[in-house]
Design brief:
Cytochrome Bc1 Complex, Chain D, domain 2, mainly alpha, 167 residues, binds heme C
């Protein structure tokens, strides 16, 4: 009888431990390239803000509709010359418009999909903008995940949040 109780106590504490560990295990969406669907590997420590961590866990962009993030994203969009190809309002220039509701890559209607496209680029003229990928000779060049999320929040805002990418 005592043995049973010990085993039960043991099992209950294992369950408690497992549920504690669960959020850690669950904290990663699978990011894949837009070029060939292979996995995108980003060092976890680059997700260095609460918003970036939430994105990594859920694929949602917490910056959608956030005015400060939208402002910062607009600045980044200009600074990283997105403007030159996509136009100052992201409505298209040399490159396509980005505000939807339809996209060259349908997955870009989601924030996870658009993040993947911006991070790793496409086969049709859009270069990778993720940190370390943008410039092969300078590993410090490129956007951090948090910056990509802010840029996306600005792009979505330009389109009146249709889509918002989080639905
Ligand atoms: C040198 C020109 C150029 C620059 C700079 C550039 N892009 Fe692009 N981008 C393109 C082209 C061309 C495409 C279409 C690619 C294709 O069809 O494969 C594209 C496609 C995209 C798409 C996919 C659109 C869709 O309909 O699915 C997104 C999102 C995007 N760009 C975001 C950005 C962001 C954000 C930046 C700045 C960090 C940026 N681009 C900088 C040329 C550019």
């Amino acid at each position: 009888m005592l043995g049973n109780k010990v085993i039960t106590t043991f099992l209950v504490s294992m369950l408690a431990l497992a549920s504690l560990a669960l959020p850690l295990n669950a904290a990663a969406i699978d990011l894949v390239t837009t070029t060939d669907g292979s996995p995108i590997k980003i060092a976890p420590e680059l997700f260095d803000t609460p918003a970036a961590q939430e994105f990594l866990a859920t694929g949602k962009n917490p910056y959608i509709g956030n005015e400060d993030a939208i402002k910062a994203g607009k600045k980044r969009f200009g600074y990283y010359s997105c403007t030159q190809c996509h136009g100052p309002e992201a409505k298209g220039q040399v490159g396509p418009g980005l505000i939807g509701p339809t996209f060259r890559y349908p997955k870009d209607a989601t924030n996870k999909g658009m993040f993947e496209t911006i991070w790793n680029g496409t086969n049709g003229g859009m270069g990778a903008k993720g940190l370390g990928l943008m410039n092969p000779t300078d590993p410090t060049d490129g956007l951090k995940p948090d910056e990509v999320l802010k840029i996306i929040s600005w792009i979505r805002n330009e389109g009146g949040n249709h889509p918002s990418g989080n639905e």
